[in-house]
TrEMBL record:
Domain WGR residues, every copy: 1-86
Organism: Aurantimonas coralicida
This protein's name: WGR domain-containing protein
InterPro entries: WGR_dom_sf (IPR036930), WGR_domain (IPR008893), YehF/YfeS-like_WGR (IPR049809)
Pfam families on file: WGR
Extent of the signal sequence: none
Gene3D superfamilies: WGR domain
PROSITE patterns associated with the record: WGR (PS51977)
Length: 86
């Protein structure tokens, strides 16, 4: 596991409140070389919505990812762990 991952997948599941949400973030370069933080969110099982934020450096994009991850964790999101396939 990377100390500073460039991809993060979070989930929030509360059956009692009928809440099944995902939030994904990835830091990458676009076709023009600009660093981007791409975010996707929505209800689990749907395509969801997306937003791309442009940054001047990979460090700035990773700082933004870390800040957003902290905010999402405070709102009940947890890191998604995929089940191993048999």
């Amino acid at each position: 596991m990377d100390l500073f991952p460039n991809r993060l997948q979070l989930e929030s599941r509360e059956a009692a409140r009928n809440r099944f949400r995902f939030y994904e973030m990835v830091v990458e370069r676009d076709l023009f070389g600009t660093w981007c933080l791409v975010r996707r969110w929505g209800r689990i099982g749907t395509r969801g919505r997306a937003r791309t934020d442009l940054h001047r450096s990979p460090e700035e994009a990773l700082d933004s990812l870390a800040d957003l991850a902290g905010r999402k964790r405070r709102r009940g999101y947890a890191v998604r762990h995929d089940k191993p396939q048999a």
